[in-house]
Amino acid sequence: MLAALSVRSPIISPVLGVDPGSLTTGYAFVVETGRRLVVRDFGEISPPAKAPLPRRLLAIHDALESKILAHRPECLSLEALFVAKGLQSMMKLVYAKGVVLLLAARHNLDVFEYPALTVKKSVVGYGQAEKRQVQFMVRQLLSLADLPRPDEADAMALALCHLQARKARLLAGSTP
User: Fold this and answer.
1) Residue 3: its pLDDT value, please?
2) What angle, rounded to 10 degrees, do the helices at 150-171 and 116-123 form?
3) In Å, how far are 101, 123, 135, 176 from 151, measured between CA atoms?
4) Cα–Cα distance between 67 and 176 in angstroms, integer?
5) Is 120 helix (H, G, I), strand (E, B) or coil?
6) What are the φ/ψ torsions at residue 102 (nearest 5 degrees)?
7) Which residues contact 5 (CB under 8 A, 6 or more apart)?
């Protein structure tokens, strides 16, 4: 008699990586199919810089929500906050991140946060990597024709970091 095998079907829902900002929010939908990493969609949401902050946040919300509805991601990967900027910049970043977290809750997405050092180490192999190095490695890993813009690359790196962390948890026997 043959024993039943537990075969994990390939994941077809992408991981959404988001690099929030009140002026530019990068996003990327990355999926692993077999041994290939594929970016299904990526870009930047850039509301008018002169618009009042609430209007910029609404523009980020609306644009990102339409992308979520189109791609139906399985989860969201974000960078954990760090305190290194001025208070005003930090507050605007927190507001933008709050919009992204609200969307995650509204669409029942699990949220995973990773420190910048972890993201850079998982993608570049070095936690102190510069933005240009992240852009280059993301381009290589996802077989992109062109170098992505910095916020796009950061969003892709966040999605890639989560895919790698999930794979490590699965290998260790933990829940994804």
Assistant:
1) 32
2) 80
3) 18, 15, 9, 26
4) 24
5) helix
6) -60, -45
7) none
Q: Alpha-carbon distance 49 to 131, whole Å?
A: 23
Q: Which residue has the tokens 């910049």?
A: 89
DSSP for 44-104?
EE---TTS-HHHHHHHHHHHHHHHHHHH--SEEEEEPP---S-HHHHHHHHHHHHHHHHHH
Residue 8: pLDDT band with limits 50, 70, 90 = very low
> Would you tell me the crossing angle of helices 87-106 and 53-71 to the nearest 10 degrees?
30
pTM strictly above 0.85: yes
Q: How many CA atoms lie within 13 A of 151 on its CB side?
A: 14
* Tens-digit pLDDT profile for residues 59-102: 999 999 999 999 999 999 999 987 666 888 888 899 999 999 99
Residues marked as catalytic: 19, 79, 151
Q: Which of 92, 98, 99 is nearest to 49 (CA)?
A: 92
User: Could you tell me the strand order of the sheet in which 25-33 lies?
Assistant: 36-45, 25-33, 15-19, 75-79, 110-114
Short-list 173, 135, 142, CA closest to 160: 142
